[in-house]
Structure formats: C-alpha cells, structure tokens
Amino acid sequence: MYFLATGGASASFGFGDLMILLAAVARAVHVTGMHRLSAGRRIDSLNLTFVQMATCGLVFLIMSGLWGTPVAAYAGSMNWPAALQMAYLVIVCTVFPFFIQMWAARRTSPTRVSLLLGTEPVWAAVIGATLAGDVLGPVGILGVVLVLAGTMWGQRLELKAPQGASTVTGQPEKVGNPTA
After folding, report:
1. Residue 180 contacts by C-beta under 8 Å, 6 or more apart in sequence?
2. From the centroid of its chain, how far is CA 72?
3. N or C: which end of the chain has fewer CB within 10 A?
C-alpha cells in the first residue's frame, strides 16, 4: 500500500496513513463479525444495513456537533444540487455497497470478502489513471502487483483449508440462504 500511495517518494507515516490502517483493521473485524453473527441465522441484509447506517448516522451526528460543523448548520447551507449530490453519495456510494457487502459476506467466506475488498486500492489506481490521468510509475505499479499477489496468496491459503469447513467457525458452511 505504501508503494501504491506514495509512488516510492520518501514520505513519512502520517496521521492519514494511520487512519487508513485502522480502517483496514475495522473492515476485517466488520466482515468477520458479520459472517459470524449471521451464520445459520435468518437475518435480513436490508434490515441489518439499515441498523448499521442508522448507527453510523447517529455517531457522526453526535461527533459533528462536538468536533465539527453541526449537521443542521451544514445541511442548511446546502443548495439543491449539493443536496442531490449528497443523496446520491449516501444511497449509491454508501448504503448500496454496504448492503451488497452484507449480502456477499453471508454467502461466502469472510476471507474471500476481505480479499476482494482489499483490491479496492488497485481499482482506485486504475480508475485514477483512466479517468483522472494519474501516473503510477514503476513503484506504483509494484504496489499494484504486490496487492494483487497478496490477494492471490490469500485465496490460495483459503483453498488449502479443509473442504466443507468454515474458515471462521470450523463448522460446515451452510449454502443457499434464501433470505436477502
């Protein structure tokens, strides 16, 4: 990730880097926890996503009042195009991906979900290079190769696990959950 983010420039490990590292740890805990909590249970992904989004909204509502611009003041300053853009980001870029992630985490192993989500920086680099004209350079390309190699290595490790056993609980995996 360092090579992909910095292009090999001598950059120090800053607060933003620490936040990204903590986000990666939080994502791993989230995916594994959701797989464990929903294993063998009939939990509706849509309802679970609603609870997650409502919880996040409440936490950020409180935090914005304590350390930033209160939500009411910020929302009041938005014009209609900005409000529509915000609604798009909330629905298409937050709620829908969380729902899909929840749905997928229940139908496959947390290892596979985490590995696929781990390729997010690679997709960001590809889209940045394609749409924004970002230049990766040799060190950035090395970063992409390392992320993809790590993903493939993790996939191979999962394939070596005993067949029919969950990578989380050691119990047989239930396939074909009819609930969404």
Report:
1. 44, 45, 46, 103
2. 28
3. C
